[in-house]
Fold:
Amino acid sequence: MPITTTHYILLSAALFTIGVVGVMVRRNIIIIFMSIELILNAVNINLIAFSQQLQNGIGQVFAIFVIAVAAAEAAVGLGIILAFYRNKETVNIDEMNVMRS
Amino acid sequence: MAQAIAFYFIAACILGFAVLVVSTKDTVHSVLFLVLDFLFVAALYVLLGAEFLAAIQILVYAGGIVVLYLFVVMLVNLKRPPEAHSDPHRRTMLGFLLAGAVLVEVGAIAIYGFSQPAMVPVPGAAMPVTGNTAQIGWLLYTSYLIPFEIASMLLLVAMIGAIVLAKREL
Amino acid sequence: MKYIWLIPILPGLGAAINGLIGIRSFSRKTAGVVACTMMGAALALSLFAFWQLLGLPADARAYDVVIAQWIPSIPLMTQHGVGGFQVPWGFRLDPLSGMMILVVTGIGTLIHVYSTAYMADEPRGGVARFFCYLNLFCFFMLMLVLGNNFVVMFVGWEGVGLCSYLLIGYWYEKKSASDAGKKAFITNRIGDWGFILGVFLIYQMFGTLDFRAVQNAAATMPVESVHFGVLSFICLFLFIGATGKSAQIPLYVWLPDAMEGPTPVSALIHAATMVTAGVYMVGRNAVLFTHAPMVMQIVAIVGVLTAFMAASIGLVQYDIKRVLAYSTVSQLGYMFTAMGVGAFSAGAFHLMTHAFFKALLFLGSGSVIHAMAGEQDMRYMGGLRKYMPVTFATMFIGTLAIAGIPPLSGFFSKDEILFRAFESNKAIWVIAVATALMTAFYMFRLVSMTFLGAYRGPAWESAGAAHGAPDDHGGGHGHGAWHGPHESPTPMTFPLMALAVGAVVAGLFGIPAALNGPNTIEHFLEPSFTAESHIADRGMRIAESGGIAEAAAIRTPQSEVRNEEAEPHVSRSVELGLMGFSVLIALAGIGLARKFYVTSPEISQGLAEQWAGPHRLLSNKYYVDELYDATVISGTYAGGRGLWAFDRHVVDGAVNGAGWLTVISAWFSGLTDRTVVDGLVNLVGRIAQEGSYWFRRLQTGLVQTYALVMVFGVFAFVTIYLFVR
Amino acid sequence: MIDTLVIPLLKIVIVLNATLVAVTYMVLLERKVIAWAQSRLGPMRVGPYGILQPVADAIKLMIKEDITPVRADKWVFTAAPIISMVPALIVYAVIPFGPEVRLFGRQVTLYITDINVGLLFIVSVASVGVYGIILAGYASNSKYPLLASLRASAQLISYEVAVTLTLVSVIMMAGSLSMVSIVRAQESQRMWYAFAQPLAFAIFFIGGLAETNRAPFDMPEAEQELTGGFHTEYSGMRFALFFLAEYANMIVVSSVATTLFLGGWLRPFPNVAFLSFLDFVPSWTWFLLKSFFFLYVFIWIRATLPRYRYDQLMRLGWKVLIPLAIANLVVTGIVKVMLL
Structure:
């Protein structure tokens, strides 16, 4: 059977879900960030699958933008993690509740 | 046929490694699984005929971002296990449920909702091998020039921000 | 020739470097070297470009390059419906602009070199500033001559005005200098007003501003020989601009005062290049002007009157630079006369030769001033010949050239103009010849008073400082104790010699046909003054369809320049006679000057007392400045005072009334604010306060709770999409 | 079938084995050259002039005991050498050793494949090689290797930027990313890019030294400071793998430099007509000669220059090379757009 765009959408949906689960379940914030990267990759797979189906490069251009944003996000996020770790000696997200009421 | 085999193999690897990423206890190992995952995603891009994106994927993700993660993991050498303390108000099961529901719904849409219009089969590897790099470059520098510039500005800002955050004393 | 846009850019670069970095941190030497290098590079590039231009076939000697779009198409009303007003950064190299860039870069480079020595005594930052301005000037001047449409030309036009303002006011601590700068600038503005009106009119008429397009369009229009039509108005406005920029009646008054600037500036801007911009512009639009004979008449008359008037003033001035300034004005008058009588190439030719010898004379006078520690009054000079031989020799050559002694350059160009004037209008010719006589006279008066006779200047050390101090133009700074007049250093004498060579040989390009000369330059420049031939022919065809009279009307301007060697209106013998006559005139002037100021100076004194009235009139420059003061300036003041009064009473009154109204209304609004608005705000606050008791529960402080809510949102939306859609 | 499967497999086998042999003999070459530079003899015992030394080394390394430190991360410890070796070998897939030749009556291309993003492929695969070093340092759970690996990876990432920028200026010149067409572009423009882009060439070479951790940038294995660097804890075949990976990387860098800047398989001065008698030499020999030249220069520099200090190294990378590379890029763009 031929591989249609549906397959790719399903794949990216599954990947997305795994990422979401990682974001919501894990307490190690680094792993949460990695799950976010997974989610972004799911998005990219979708974009490229559609650009493949529509036979134009726009989806890939957007994928490039997504990658750029992911890079920025990783840099700033990890910077924040380091700064936080320096103060509280932990990367557990459950202990990041300085502002809870 | 060969394409189907390749797709299923790659997809299986992607999902499996993704699961490993979110489930492993040792942070370093999960970073490694993340790298493998990205490599296979790149392979998927090649299958989709987007070899430029594949190269970018490896270069930026595997070569750049994940190295950053690895550094952070090494710098944050944890004396006590990172997930020791757990807040009583967590709703873990609810998270699983919601995620599963979303997956089911999206799957439903993808299969039933999406395939009403006659689907053209994606000619994966049958894509002309004469590269879409030029096409992407053209799009980037003509129609998407301003977003491109904004993205570069965003990267600059992010770089400065990361330096400011991570540097102990400025 | 795609690179010709680099020619202006290079000096601009130099200006940028000197201005941004140099003023703060360059030594005098570095600043000079930077500026000279840039100009040298520009010169080399222009020579190469010119050489390539010569390589082209004679009728295709034009090259346009557009480096960028400046003003994209703006819909703008024209004569024939809405046109797209769009201006490119376009540059055009054709014979005329080729000659001009050679003149500008060549003389510019020499003068840069000269300045390195002349300004050597300035404070460090000042030198960098000076070179920055000088380079900037060259940038704008090259822009002006290379631009291929009116707007780019206008950029250069304004730019050179600005630079001349900056450079005249270079010693801005001196009130006279800064005043002279302002005067020059304002006077130029008046001219620019005319120029820009002309440009508007041109766009409105032709729907384009590209020179070539405008000329081709104009070539197909009838000559306005009887009625004073649009073309005539265009030309009139353009000519007003020209009078402002190149110091013709009535706007010439700024040029003599411009001599407050450093001498190299006077040489470069106020003799060689900028003041000729007007002539260049008229030549650039030759086709338009040939279609407006009446304006041509005006141009010729104004030109020749200016020439005469300025020369007559120059007779009695004592400030060496002012004499040269008036001489410049009168030579420019010559050029305009040439333009006016339709001898465009002759005018351009005189422009070139004049650039050489006038720059030479100015630099020479600068060298003299340098030697005399800033003394400018010729009454305190004399006998300098033995102190500064090189300056004397070169300046003597220059003087012969300007007086029109064959075979020096001035002879050919001036004689060509005189001949063409004779052809067109005897009266103009008479005045021009008289001017030639006076020219020879005052130039030799200058040379005699400066170099010949006995030394009348101050004695060495003591008096020298005393005399140098009051009207010190910077030439004499830092000499410490002044050791009497001396020859200037090599960087100053070298340009003198180079220019002297130029002044000798420049004429040989234009040996007229009457002397069996090829008259190279005329044939070379001709394409720039006529529309492209096929356009002209189309004009004829239109004419033939539209009747004989119009055909004649159209054919004449095109064929004028071409026919004119074919069957000259006057026979060759007459032309030769005229040449001889003008030579005689020049010699006569020289002789008179020699008699008055060398052999028996008392005669001049006698004449001065005998003709006291005219002498006073001349030495007061026909009281033109006073006249302007009495009319224009005081008028402006009166108008200003009137406006001030209006502003004070009417406008301010209105404003104050409005203020009162505001105060009263503000009180009411304050009332409502306190009662109504604040009430609402407090109500909202109360509601929020009450409600927050319940909403606070959601805020657990767990990031992942919020993530959970987000995913729930996703879930909700997907559900909606799934069912509701 | 033959064209699609057999020949590529043959090529791969040949290239891999050739590379490994070349690597082993690189070691011998290096020892010899340095010995001569220090006026010693170098290995002389095994075989005539010690040409069998590599074999001896190989045997020794294989039969040595293979120690895994206690408290080390076993899996990662094993994976690291492989991770660092594999990318170095993958890269050979796109390096063009020569143009098409006629072999046994069929057209054979002297490169395994020519993908249209070849250069990008090389850069990205090479960037994966960093993991080997980082993980080696992390997994062996001892502080010197950790420091060394952090240093090494920082150094690699820093110099990767400069090197990639120079590559971009080369791509601008050639207008393509595929290695073969870059060589062809140099042929059609009748000029080695080493002359068109001297600055890029210099930066690439320095960056290549740093990327392969060669002297004077061999911080990561600075014996004096770090007791041997990130592979301190390794021994036996795993150590050998690191060793081989480094030399394989050297060969990669020199091949890429040859392809991009010295016109790959082209004869010297392809723009000089009267040198065309050189064409009778098979083209791949030119390639090998040029690469060998680079390798020799590597060794030569190691024998000559002292080691940089770490902060000096970083300053050189960030404050000198990258700005220069960017300037070069801008100038190239301007020249290409405005004046050509």
Remarks:
- Residues 65-102+115-339 of chain D form one domain.
- The beta strands of chain D are 100-103, 106-109.
- Chain D has a mean pLDDT of 86.
